[in-house]
Protein backbone atom coordinates (compact mmCIF):
# COMPACT_ATOMS: atom_id res chain seq x y z
CA UNK A 1 0.00 0.00 0.00
CA UNK A 2 1.05 3.64 -0.51
CA UNK A 3 2.47 5.28 2.54
CA UNK A 4 -0.29 6.83 4.64
CA UNK A 5 0.30 9.08 7.63
CA UNK A 6 -1.84 9.61 10.70
CA UNK A 7 -3.89 12.81 10.61
CA UNK A 8 -3.43 13.14 14.36
CA UNK A 9 0.27 12.66 15.00
CA UNK A 10 1.90 12.13 11.59
CA UNK A 11 3.24 8.62 12.24
CA UNK A 12 3.25 6.21 9.30
CA UNK A 13 0.12 4.06 9.28
CA UNK A 14 0.43 0.27 9.33
CA UNK A 15 -2.14 -2.51 9.64
CA UNK A 16 0.13 -5.40 10.67
CA UNK A 17 1.13 -5.04 14.30
CA UNK A 18 -1.27 -3.83 16.97
CA UNK A 19 1.52 -3.22 19.45
CA UNK A 20 3.56 -0.96 17.23
CA UNK A 21 2.98 2.70 16.55
CA UNK A 22 0.77 3.73 13.64
CA UNK A 23 -1.55 0.74 13.82
CA UNK A 24 -5.08 0.91 12.38
CA UNK A 25 -7.39 -2.01 11.63
CA UNK A 26 -7.63 -2.63 7.85
CA UNK A 27 -11.29 -1.55 7.85
CA UNK A 28 -10.26 1.94 9.02
CA UNK A 29 -8.30 2.53 5.80
CA UNK A 30 -11.62 3.31 4.11
CA UNK A 31 -12.10 6.41 6.28
CA UNK A 32 -11.50 9.82 4.77
CA UNK A 33 -9.37 10.94 7.75
CA UNK A 34 -7.19 8.15 9.04
CA UNK A 35 -5.89 8.39 12.58
CA UNK A 36 -3.80 5.73 14.28
CA UNK A 37 -5.20 3.65 17.11
CA UNK A 38 -3.19 5.61 19.66
CA UNK A 39 -4.61 8.98 18.55
CA UNK A 40 -8.05 7.42 18.28
CA UNK A 41 -7.85 6.27 21.87
CA UNK A 42 -6.49 9.57 23.05
CA UNK A 43 -9.31 11.38 21.40
CA UNK A 44 -12.02 9.07 22.60
CA UNK A 45 -10.88 7.62 25.88
CA UNK A 46 -7.94 9.78 26.92
CA UNK A 47 -5.86 6.65 27.22
CA UNK A 48 -2.22 6.35 26.24
CA UNK A 49 -0.61 3.32 24.78
CA UNK A 50 3.05 2.54 25.25
CA UNK A 51 5.01 2.70 22.04
CA UNK A 52 8.38 1.31 21.29
CA UNK A 53 10.45 4.39 20.49
CA UNK A 54 13.76 4.49 22.34
CA UNK A 55 15.65 7.64 23.32
CA UNK A 56 18.06 6.98 20.47
CA UNK A 57 15.19 6.87 17.98
CA UNK A 58 14.07 10.31 19.12
CA UNK A 59 17.53 11.79 18.91
CA UNK A 60 18.13 10.24 15.51
CA UNK A 61 14.90 11.82 14.29
CA UNK A 62 15.85 15.24 15.66
CA UNK A 63 19.32 14.84 14.19
CA UNK A 64 17.79 14.87 10.69
CA UNK A 65 17.41 18.63 11.18
CA UNK A 66 21.19 19.08 10.93
CA UNK A 67 20.96 18.17 7.24
CA UNK A 68 18.45 20.93 6.49
CA UNK A 69 18.61 24.66 6.12
CA UNK A 70 15.94 25.85 8.45
CA UNK A 71 14.95 27.72 11.60
CA UNK A 72 14.67 25.72 14.81
CA UNK A 73 12.05 26.73 17.37
CA UNK A 74 12.82 25.11 20.70
CA UNK A 75 9.99 25.04 23.24
CA UNK A 76 10.63 24.69 26.96
CA UNK A 77 8.27 24.60 29.88
CA UNK A 78 9.22 27.53 32.14
CA UNK A 79 8.27 25.38 35.15
CA UNK A 80 10.58 22.65 34.00
CA UNK A 81 13.34 24.58 32.27
CA UNK A 82 16.21 22.33 33.30
CA UNK A 83 14.13 19.17 33.07
CA UNK A 84 12.92 19.96 29.59
CA UNK A 85 16.25 20.99 28.14
CA UNK A 86 17.55 18.76 25.35
CA UNK A 87 21.28 18.44 25.78
CA UNK A 88 23.33 18.42 22.60
CA UNK A 89 20.61 20.24 20.68
CA UNK A 90 23.12 22.52 18.99
CA UNK A 91 24.94 19.50 17.55
CA UNK A 92 21.70 17.73 16.61
CA UNK A 93 20.36 20.67 14.66
CA UNK A 94 23.55 21.71 12.85
CA UNK A 95 24.22 25.36 12.24
CA UNK A 96 20.61 26.33 12.01
CA UNK A 97 19.55 29.36 14.06
CA UNK A 98 17.51 28.63 17.18
CA UNK A 99 14.71 30.60 18.79
CA UNK A 100 13.90 29.65 22.35
CA UNK A 101 10.29 29.79 23.49
CA UNK A 102 9.38 29.58 27.18
CA UNK A 103 5.84 28.26 27.38
CA UNK A 104 3.09 28.38 30.05
CA UNK A 105 3.64 32.03 31.00
CA UNK A 106 -0.06 32.24 31.94
CA UNK A 107 0.79 30.31 35.12
CA UNK A 108 3.25 32.88 36.46
CA UNK A 109 2.03 35.35 39.07
CA UNK A 110 1.31 38.72 37.45
CA UNK A 111 4.12 40.35 39.40
CA UNK A 112 6.80 38.17 37.78
CA UNK A 113 9.65 40.15 36.26
CA UNK A 114 9.54 38.68 32.77
CA UNK A 115 12.71 40.30 31.52
CA UNK A 116 14.61 38.74 34.42
CA UNK A 117 13.19 35.37 33.44
CA UNK A 118 14.30 35.90 29.86
CA UNK A 119 17.79 36.85 31.03
CA UNK A 120 17.98 33.69 33.11
CA UNK A 121 16.79 31.53 30.22
CA UNK A 122 19.41 33.08 27.93
CA UNK A 123 22.15 32.49 30.45
CA UNK A 124 21.10 28.93 31.27
CA UNK A 125 20.81 28.06 27.56
CA UNK A 126 24.31 29.39 27.05
CA UNK A 127 25.58 27.40 30.06
CA UNK A 128 24.12 24.33 28.35
CA UNK A 129 26.13 25.21 25.23
CA UNK A 130 23.15 26.44 23.24
CA UNK A 131 23.37 29.64 21.29
CA UNK A 132 19.94 31.15 20.87
CA UNK A 133 18.98 34.11 18.70
CA UNK A 134 16.02 35.26 20.77
CA UNK A 135 13.96 34.20 23.75
CA UNK A 136 10.19 34.66 23.98
CA UNK A 137 7.68 33.92 26.69
CA UNK A 138 4.31 32.69 25.52
CA UNK A 139 1.21 30.89 26.60
CA UNK A 140 0.35 28.30 23.99
CA UNK A 141 -2.91 27.83 25.88
CA UNK A 142 -4.22 31.40 25.58
CA UNK A 143 -2.07 32.95 22.87
CA UNK A 144 -0.26 35.45 25.15
CA UNK A 145 3.03 36.58 23.62
CA UNK A 146 2.29 35.10 20.21
CA UNK A 147 2.23 38.38 18.26
CA UNK A 148 5.90 38.97 18.92
CA UNK A 149 7.04 35.36 18.69
CA UNK A 150 5.20 34.80 15.41
CA UNK A 151 6.66 37.93 13.90
CA UNK A 152 10.17 36.93 14.89
CA UNK A 153 9.75 33.39 13.50
CA UNK A 154 8.51 34.82 10.22
CA UNK A 155 11.45 37.24 9.93
CA UNK A 156 14.12 34.78 11.02
CA UNK A 157 12.98 31.90 8.87
CA UNK A 158 13.24 34.04 5.79
CA UNK A 159 11.08 31.63 3.74
CA UNK A 160 12.89 28.59 5.05
CA UNK A 161 11.33 25.62 6.85
CA UNK A 162 10.72 25.68 10.59
CA UNK A 163 11.32 22.72 12.92
CA UNK A 164 9.58 22.84 16.26
CA UNK A 165 11.42 20.77 18.87
CA UNK A 166 10.94 20.12 22.57
CA UNK A 167 10.71 17.48 25.24
CA UNK A 168 7.43 15.74 25.92
CA UNK A 169 4.86 17.73 27.83
CA UNK A 170 6.33 21.20 27.28
CA UNK A 171 3.25 22.18 25.25
CA UNK A 172 4.66 21.72 21.78
CA UNK A 173 1.40 20.41 20.31
CA UNK A 174 -0.57 23.18 22.00
CA UNK A 175 1.90 25.74 20.63
CA UNK A 176 1.52 24.49 17.05
CA UNK A 177 -2.25 24.23 17.43
CA UNK A 178 -2.28 27.85 18.60
CA UNK A 179 -0.22 28.95 15.57
CA UNK A 180 -2.53 27.06 13.22
CA UNK A 181 -5.60 28.40 14.95
CA UNK A 182 -4.35 31.99 14.62
CA UNK A 183 -3.63 31.70 10.94
CA UNK A 184 -6.52 29.49 9.80
CA UNK A 185 -9.11 29.42 12.58
CA UNK A 186 -8.83 25.61 12.79
CA UNK A 187 -8.87 24.42 16.40
CA UNK A 188 -6.82 21.51 17.84
CA UNK A 189 -5.39 20.60 14.46
CA UNK A 190 -2.94 18.18 16.02
CA UNK A 191 -3.55 15.95 18.97
CA UNK A 192 -2.93 17.27 22.49
CA UNK A 193 -3.33 15.60 25.84
CA UNK A 194 -2.36 15.62 29.47
CA UNK A 195 0.07 12.82 28.89
CA UNK A 196 3.63 12.99 27.64
CA UNK A 197 4.60 11.67 24.27
CA UNK A 198 1.55 12.10 22.10
CA UNK A 199 3.38 13.51 19.12
CA UNK A 200 5.11 10.70 17.26
CA UNK A 201 6.17 11.50 13.74
CA UNK A 202 7.11 14.71 11.96
CA UNK A 203 3.89 16.45 11.10
CA UNK A 204 4.20 18.73 8.11
CA UNK A 205 2.27 21.99 8.14
CA UNK A 206 2.45 24.20 5.05
CA UNK A 207 3.62 27.78 5.72
CA UNK A 208 3.56 29.01 2.15
CA UNK A 209 3.90 27.47 -1.33
CA UNK A 210 7.46 26.36 -0.68
CA UNK A 211 8.05 25.92 3.01
CA UNK A 212 6.73 23.95 5.93
CA UNK A 213 6.64 23.87 9.67
CA UNK A 214 7.53 20.45 11.10
CA UNK A 215 6.31 19.15 14.40
CA UNK A 216 8.99 16.77 15.65
CA UNK A 217 8.51 13.95 18.16
CA UNK A 218 8.70 14.98 21.82
CA UNK A 219 12.07 13.95 23.17
CA UNK A 220 11.82 11.88 26.34
CA UNK A 221 14.16 13.40 28.89
CA UNK A 222 14.81 11.22 31.94
CA UNK A 223 15.50 14.30 34.03
CA UNK A 224 11.83 15.26 33.73
CA UNK A 225 9.79 14.43 36.80
CA UNK A 226 6.79 13.86 34.55
CA UNK A 227 8.09 10.44 33.51
CA UNK A 228 7.91 9.10 37.03
CA UNK A 229 4.43 10.17 38.04
CA UNK A 230 1.02 8.76 37.25
CA UNK A 231 -1.30 10.90 35.17
CA UNK A 232 -3.41 11.64 38.25
CA UNK A 233 -0.40 12.96 40.14
CA UNK A 234 0.76 14.87 37.09
CA UNK A 235 -2.52 16.74 37.13
CA UNK A 236 -1.91 17.71 40.75
CA UNK A 237 1.64 18.94 40.37
CA UNK A 238 1.02 20.74 37.06
CA UNK A 239 -0.33 24.21 37.79
CA UNK A 240 -3.54 24.87 35.90
CA UNK A 241 -4.12 28.47 36.91
CA UNK A 242 -1.98 31.40 37.85
CA UNK A 243 0.09 30.33 40.84
CA UNK A 244 -0.78 31.82 44.21
CA UNK A 245 2.40 32.32 46.21
CA UNK A 246 2.33 30.75 49.70
CA UNK A 247 4.48 32.35 52.37
CA UNK A 248 6.11 30.53 55.31
CA UNK A 249 8.01 32.19 58.12
CA UNK A 250 10.69 29.71 59.11
CA UNK A 251 13.35 29.50 61.78
CA UNK A 252 16.47 27.51 61.11
CA UNK A 253 16.05 23.77 61.73
CA UNK A 254 12.58 23.75 60.18
CA UNK A 255 11.51 21.79 57.12
CA UNK A 256 8.91 22.16 54.39
CA UNK A 257 7.61 19.22 52.39
CA UNK A 258 6.13 19.81 48.94
CA UNK A 259 3.75 16.89 48.86
CA UNK A 260 6.20 14.03 49.14
CA UNK A 261 8.13 15.06 46.03
CA UNK A 262 10.62 17.42 47.58
CA UNK A 263 11.84 18.48 50.98
CA UNK A 264 13.34 21.83 51.92
CA UNK A 265 15.42 22.04 55.11
CA UNK A 266 16.35 25.45 56.48
CA UNK A 267 19.71 24.49 57.97
CA UNK A 268 21.36 27.73 58.98
CA UNK A 269 20.54 31.44 59.02
CA UNK A 270 18.28 34.05 60.59
CA UNK A 271 14.50 33.67 60.64
CA UNK A 272 13.00 34.74 57.34
CA UNK A 273 10.00 34.26 55.03
CA UNK A 274 10.09 31.80 52.19
CA UNK A 275 7.70 32.32 49.31
CA UNK A 276 6.64 29.08 47.65
CA UNK A 277 5.49 28.95 44.03
CA UNK A 278 3.93 25.58 43.30
CA UNK A 279 0.70 24.23 41.86
CA UNK A 280 -2.09 25.52 44.08
CA UNK A 281 -3.15 21.92 44.62
CA UNK A 282 0.20 20.71 45.92
CA UNK A 283 0.05 20.51 49.74
CA UNK A 284 2.89 22.06 51.72
CA UNK A 285 3.67 20.68 55.19
CA UNK A 286 5.91 22.21 57.82
CA UNK A 287 7.79 20.10 60.37
CA UNK A 288 10.84 20.32 62.58
CA UNK A 289 14.04 19.32 60.82
CA UNK A 290 14.98 16.74 63.42
CA UNK A 291 11.64 14.99 62.89
CA UNK A 292 11.56 15.27 59.12
CA UNK A 293 13.11 11.88 58.28
CA UNK A 294 10.64 10.06 60.46
CA UNK A 295 7.74 12.18 59.21
CA UNK A 296 8.59 11.34 55.62
CA UNK A 297 8.99 7.61 56.31
CA UNK A 298 5.66 7.50 58.07
CA UNK A 299 3.56 9.72 55.83
CA UNK A 300 4.87 9.62 52.28
CA UNK A 301 2.06 8.38 50.04
CA UNK A 302 -0.72 9.41 52.47
CA UNK A 303 -0.38 12.75 54.28
CA UNK A 304 2.49 13.64 51.98
CA UNK A 305 0.58 13.03 48.79
CA UNK A 306 1.15 13.23 45.84
CA UNK A 307 3.11 10.96 45.17
CA UNK A 308 0.34 8.40 45.32
CA UNK A 309 1.40 4.84 46.28
CA UNK A 310 1.48 3.97 42.54
CA UNK A 311 3.81 6.87 41.73
CA UNK A 312 6.00 5.95 44.70
CA UNK A 313 6.74 2.59 43.13
CA UNK A 314 8.41 4.24 40.15
CA UNK A 315 9.72 7.46 41.72
CA UNK A 316 13.50 7.56 42.24
CA UNK A 317 14.44 7.99 45.93
CA UNK A 318 14.94 11.52 47.27
CA UNK A 319 18.56 12.59 47.42
CA UNK A 320 19.90 15.44 49.49
CA UNK A 321 21.96 18.36 48.34
CA UNK A 322 23.20 21.12 50.64
CA UNK A 323 23.35 24.58 49.12
CA UNK A 324 24.60 27.96 50.34
CA UNK A 325 22.29 30.70 49.13
CA UNK A 326 24.09 33.98 48.37
CA UNK A 327 23.16 37.12 50.29
CA UNK A 328 20.56 38.30 47.82
CA UNK A 329 16.99 37.39 46.94
CA UNK A 330 17.22 34.03 45.20
CA UNK A 331 14.86 31.49 43.65
CA UNK A 332 15.60 27.87 44.41
CA UNK A 333 14.15 26.09 41.41
CA UNK A 334 12.91 22.49 41.47
CA UNK A 335 12.29 21.61 37.81
CA UNK A 336 8.83 20.20 37.15
CA UNK A 337 7.47 21.38 40.48
CA UNK A 338 8.09 25.08 41.12
CA UNK A 339 10.38 27.26 43.19
CA UNK A 340 11.00 28.83 46.59
CA UNK A 341 12.19 32.41 46.99
CA UNK A 342 14.53 33.21 49.86
CA UNK A 343 16.04 36.52 50.97
CA UNK A 344 19.37 34.73 50.89
CA UNK A 345 22.34 34.53 53.22
CA UNK A 346 21.37 31.06 54.44
CA UNK A 347 22.23 27.40 54.07
CA UNK A 348 19.57 24.93 53.02
CA UNK A 349 19.35 21.26 52.17
CA UNK A 350 17.04 20.22 49.46
CA UNK A 351 15.87 16.66 48.81
CA UNK A 352 14.56 15.87 45.33
CA UNK A 353 14.04 12.66 43.32
CA UNK A 354 17.37 11.40 42.05
CA UNK A 355 18.07 12.79 38.57
CA UNK A 356 16.13 16.02 39.09
CA UNK A 357 18.60 18.91 38.99
CA UNK A 358 17.82 21.93 41.16
CA UNK A 359 19.15 25.37 40.25
CA UNK A 360 19.42 28.88 41.67
CA UNK A 361 18.57 32.15 39.95
CA UNK A 362 18.11 35.78 40.98
CA UNK A 363 14.53 36.07 42.25
CA UNK A 364 11.97 36.78 39.53
CA UNK A 365 9.55 38.52 41.89
P1 LIG B 1 3.67 18.24 24.11
O1 LIG B 1 3.87 16.85 24.71
O2 LIG B 1 4.92 19.05 24.23
O3 LIG B 1 3.11 18.24 22.75
O4 LIG B 1 2.66 18.97 25.10
P2 LIG B 1 1.08 19.26 24.99
O5 LIG B 1 0.80 20.31 23.97
O6 LIG B 1 0.33 17.98 24.91
O7 LIG B 1 0.86 19.94 26.43
C1 LIG B 1 1.24 19.29 27.63
C2 LIG B 1 0.38 19.80 28.77
O8 LIG B 1 0.65 21.17 29.03
C3 LIG B 1 -1.13 19.72 28.48
O9 LIG B 1 -1.78 19.38 29.67
C4 LIG B 1 -1.47 21.14 28.06
O10 LIG B 1 -2.82 21.47 28.33
C5 LIG B 1 -0.53 21.96 28.93
N1 LIG B 1 -0.17 23.24 28.30
C6 LIG B 1 0.37 23.42 27.07
N2 LIG B 1 0.59 24.74 26.84
C7 LIG B 1 0.18 25.39 27.94
C8 LIG B 1 0.16 26.78 28.32
O11 LIG B 1 0.54 27.70 27.61
N3 LIG B 1 -0.33 27.04 29.56
C9 LIG B 1 -0.79 26.08 30.41
N4 LIG B 1 -1.26 26.45 31.59
N5 LIG B 1 -0.77 24.78 30.09
C10 LIG B 1 -0.31 24.44 28.87
From TrEMBL:
One Pfam entry name: MMR_HSR1
Gene3D superfamilies documented for this protein: P-loop containing nucleotide triphosphate hydrolases
SUPFAM superfamilies tied to this protein: P-loop containing nucleoside triphosphate hydrolases
Stored PANTHER family: GENETIC INTERACTOR OF PROHIBITINS 3, MITOCHONDRIAL
GO MF term (any one): GTP binding
Ranges of residues in domain CP-type G: 56-222
Protein known as: CP-type G domain-containing protein
Organism taxonomic ancestry: Bacteria, Bacillati, Bacillota, Bacilli, Bacillales
Domain of life (superkingdom): Bacteria
Amino acid sequence: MDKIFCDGCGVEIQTEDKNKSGFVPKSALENEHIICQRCFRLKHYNEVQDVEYTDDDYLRMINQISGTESLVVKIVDIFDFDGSFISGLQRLTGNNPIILIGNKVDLLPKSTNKSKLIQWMKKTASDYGLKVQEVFLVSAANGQGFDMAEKEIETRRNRKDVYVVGCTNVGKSTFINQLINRSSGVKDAITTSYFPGTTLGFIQIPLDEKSYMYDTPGVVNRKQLVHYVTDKDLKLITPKKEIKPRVYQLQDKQTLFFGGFARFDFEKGLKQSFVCYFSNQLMIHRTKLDQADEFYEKHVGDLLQPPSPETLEQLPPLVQQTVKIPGEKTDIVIPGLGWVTSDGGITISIHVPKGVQISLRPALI
